[in-house]
Amino acid sequence: MKNDIPSAKIQEFDFLRAVAILILMFHHSEAYGLSLFGYSLEVLNPYLEGILLGIFFFISGYFAERSFQKHTQGSVSFFFSRMLRIYPPYLLTVFLYKFVLGISFKQRDLLIYLAGAHFIFAPNYAKPVITIWYIGAIILFYLIFGILLANLRATKPLVVVSALVFAAAYILNAQTGLLDERFFKYFIVFLAGILFARPQYFQSWLSAEKAWLKAAFAALATFTFSLTLNFSSTSPSYILGVVFFILSWVILLFTLATKVKSPFLLKLAGVISYASYFVYLLHRPLWTWLAGIFSVETGRDLILFRMFPASIAAFILSYYLQYGYDRLLAMFRRRE
Asked: Domain coordinates of the chain in residue numbers?
């Protein structure tokens, strides 16, 4: 979804978000079961997952910082504004997962998911559910960094306190099993998004310059990440490897996006980007519903059905749902 950022940056972030959501559709379609020139696509799984989710968390951090730069607001106001945009559609999704996908929830689990607290309690104290774990993560990060950004505007104190929060979370996870283990890598990526939005620090890296150097860093980061794939997801080596990988690819893809000048591609990226939040939430229930209507059951046919006609339908529906929801929010704000 759109946030307050300079107009010169909209094109690049639209492309990043569009790339991420297209990768997501491939990722969730079970296309890894296919092969290309006799080679399984499964090898791409951890790399594409890291890039697509890394983009989402990085952009969320970047937008959170830009929001605080442009508006004077407290942590409560910031968190409420974000929840107003993400929570009602998420609530609808929880019920679609229950009644369309047939995912069962115990009463306690359902309450945890309705509260958006599943990233804290799953998988050890609540049932893990595919895909929508991301919403729990983003809610928690908005809460944490909303408090930090409202009270720590200088960068060094923000980094120091964020490091203390990370350390406390790491100990909490080790001692109690609370927090999804994905917290650690994406916490750093979200923080990186905040820092990259600050002109005096890393924002110059998000530019059209030195594309070949950035490509070399992305290649090095990919190799480094590959060496850590068998490590524990809470291993410091794995966390550093995946964060290096994600950030190098975000920077490279942003640089490549600055080269796109085609009006058609710019508009297409904007449309895909605009629909991306509802696509993320609704594509699995919609795929299941459409596959049932057209009697597409298993195997290659199901994969291709999800990747093409069902995904196109998801983008069209999601675009209009996002448009309608934005109109609804605009009406709500006018009444305040």
From this structure: 7-334
